[in-house]
Amino acid sequence: MDGIVVIYTPQGAAKPKELAEAVIDLALEKIKPVLAVWMGGGAEIEEARKLFFKNNIPCYSTPEEAVRTYMYMYRYKRNLELLYETPHELSIDLAPPKHHLKILIRRALNEGREVLTEDEAERFLKVYGIPTPPAGLAKNVGEALMIASKIGYPVALKIISPDIVHKTDVGGVILGVSNEEELRKAFNMILENIRRNNPDARIEGIYVQKMVRDADYELILGSKKDPIFGSVILFGAGGVGVEVFRDYALGLPPLNQVLARRMMEETRIYKLLKDGHRNKPPVNLEKLEEIMVRFSNMIVDFPEIKEIDINPLMASRNSFYAVDARIILDKEAAEKKIEPHSNLVIMPYPVKYITPYTLKDGTHVLLRPIRPEDEPLEFELIKNLSEETKRFRFFQVIKDITHEMLVRYCNIDYDREMAIIAEYTGPDGRKRNVGVGRLIMDPTRKRGEFAVVVADDFQGKGLGTKLIDMTIQIADERGLETIYGIVMPENVRMIELCKKFGFNIRYTPEEVIVELNLRGRRVPEIPETEIRARAKKRPYLKIRPPSEAKAAETETPAQTGRKIEE
């Protein structure tokens, strides 16, 4: 049971107000949502409704209103559950080589073109691992015959010209060429069509592409810049009827496996893709998710792309091919120096922080930002920490590690928070998260709170030092003025480590506050002898509410000294 709707209809056996009071008493004891429906009119009914409102219980005059509200609540809760579902990890290169694609864009703009040719667009797709049919660019009939014999018939021929955007309109496309004789005729026919319909067009060659036969479904995958939401991704049923059937879903990059699946589920064609129909089998949805995530990564990496359409994306049981792609460039974004990812409303995965690192004992780890897919690794890290390490990091002994807790740690907004994990791959190939450095920025973007934890068997190897160092670098890069952390007095190793980085050490009645002013201003430090003396005296401490801790940070050194003496 997820909720309760209590309905009252006017009758002489029970008074509206008394019954409302009884429902309120029960509702306040329960954790499930309660919605009330007090039907009818009159002063007593109105008084009962006001009583519900006073106790923060919604009250309606009809059951339909209550049920509609409940369904809104249910859908909201369900959407959050789906959003924070742990994604599967995909084998995707997060940082493919992009320099030659940047050069390609500059060359096109220097030539006065804002639309890439088909072979140029295909280069983008290939770099990001989006499958395309075998193809080649032919300068003459002989080259076209060689390409066709290599990739196999039937083939499609398409004109490649920087001056022609709509190839079909000028007779620049011929499909279904099945042998050498047809290819010779088709090649010459395309050239004649261009000379007749667009005689001034510059011709770079004719694209010879393998025809994709027997595809079960035609899909569309595209993106377009919106003035408010930035780049928006579109997925749905494709082909010639895309604007007729209008079966599509929209999403915001960056996508992961779960978000890609949610987009699919919003379309009508998803049921066909999932279950198949008659002689059409279902497709490999995991592979389609991977293609969508790769496409999303391309949009994230290239704010210079104003619009892109892959239509059709041909889909069969286990194969997908981007048969036709069109890319329109954003000249302003390409020519001006813009902020990275300014085309996005959601901060993407910060690839630049991925760093291989070697510990003191020669162990290799990979330092990288955390991802939602890391929830199982985060669970294992917390579960295997010693009781002391758990207390030092969380100020309490954590017994139940819930999905909701892990979601908070793994699903982060990279714009306001950063968590760097240390990923270790054992001899058996199994991956472990052996440490985390976390930085949470205040809304003012002037201060940030940091925390570090290292797996017990990896302590003393220099990992904690490196995580703090990266946290400081990230805070400085983001323009923070100060970073601080709250440390238990018993955690002497952490306090000493912070002192090595130049942190100031300050006491409050129940914890030690370590603070580093990134703009060079310093606060008087507490002597190490005081720290050790306090650590011996104080038992395990619970963390105080943030409001109290923040108030304690404003203490003067004199106030702090008096409390130490006490």
How is this structure best described in words?
This protein is of the alpha+beta class. Among the domains are: 4-83, Rossmann fold, CATH 3.40.50; 351-565, Gcn5-related N-acetyltransferase (GNAT) (Aminopeptidase). 38% of the residues lie in helices and 23% in strands. It is built from 20 helices and 21 strands. The strands form four sheets. Strands 14-15-16-17-18-19-21-20 form an eight-stranded mixed beta sheet, sandwiched between helices. Strands 8, 9, 10, 11, 12 and 13 form a six-stranded antiparallel beta sheet that branches. Strand 20 (504-507) and strand 21 form a beta hairpin. Helix 1 (16-27) runs parallel beside helix 2. The longest helix is centred in the first third of the chain and has 21 residues, at 63-83. The radius of gyration is 31 Å and the shape is globular. The model is unreliable at 521-526 and 534-566 (pLDDT under 50).
Q: Which architecture of the domain at 351-565 per CATH?
A: 3-Layer(aba) Sandwich
Shape: globular
CATH topology of the domain at 351-565: Aminopeptidase
Q: For the report, how would you describe the main beta sheet?
A: 8 strands, mixed
Mean pLDDT: 86
Q: Whole-number radius of gyration?
A: 31 Å
Number of helices: 20
Measured between the Cα atoms of the first and last residue, the distance is 54 Å
Question: CATH homologous superfamily of the domain at 351-565 - what is it?
Answer: Gcn5-related N-acetyltransferase (GNAT)
In CATH, what is the class of the domain at 351-565? Alpha Beta
Structural class: alpha+beta
Count of individual beta strands: 21
Beta fraction: 15-25%
Q: Order of strands in the sheet with the most strands?
A: 14-15-16-17-18-19-21-20
Low-confidence stretches: 521-526, 534-566
- Helical content (DSSP H or I, runs of 4+): 25-40%
